[in-house]
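We emphasize that the prediction below concerns an isolated chain of 57 residues; any contacts that depend on oligomerization or on bound cofactors are therefore not represented. The input was used exactly as deposited, without trimming of termini.
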Amino acid sequence: MKLGVHVKAAVACGINSKGPWRSSKTPGIQQAPSNDYLKAEGLASLRDGWIKLHHSR
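Result of the prediction step, given as a token string:
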């Protein structure tokens, strides 16, 4: 695909029955874009939003 993840690997990540921790070690997830890349593209970080929401009191 466009960012280097093979279609079969991407589909396998989407249809597996593993939880998020176990599936994080699958090849399709390991080839995914890094957080730095996503931030450079202007996408918001869910982690940063959660921290801002819960620690701004």
